[in-house]
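Fold in tokens:
===
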Amino acid sequence: MKFRSVVIYALIALFLAGVFLQAQGALEIRAASNTAVAGWQEMSLPGGGTVWVSTTNALASADIARVRPRTDANGQQTVGMVFTAEGARKMAQLSAAQANKPIALLLDGKVVWVPVVRSSIEKEATLSGVTPEVVRRVFASLK
């Protein structure tokens, strides 16, 4: 009986570790603010400073159909992101709600990019102004 209990506990631990590791690679897109918002989480920015981020995901990895490497007019690497039908609906809602306000891109639970929404975003978006490391991590998280 004792050996069976140890095996059951080991299987539960492996299952929980797998869930934890899978969540670590998740990409999330959330509403953000440069000023404090009640109920939102204050998070560190990659280059220093802080941003307040909604605790609710507006979009997740499952809302992204595919990503493509792109190069902008200045020769900088960017990421083209195509959303699923549901993801496009969610992004349209988020971009309307956050017009001229920031949104946060999180990888592994950390803010990696905070652009300001300048226009309506629906089926497709381009991540520009991100570091090559963020580009690599976005591709890795969505494979």
Remarks:
- DSSP finds three helices and nine strands in the chain.
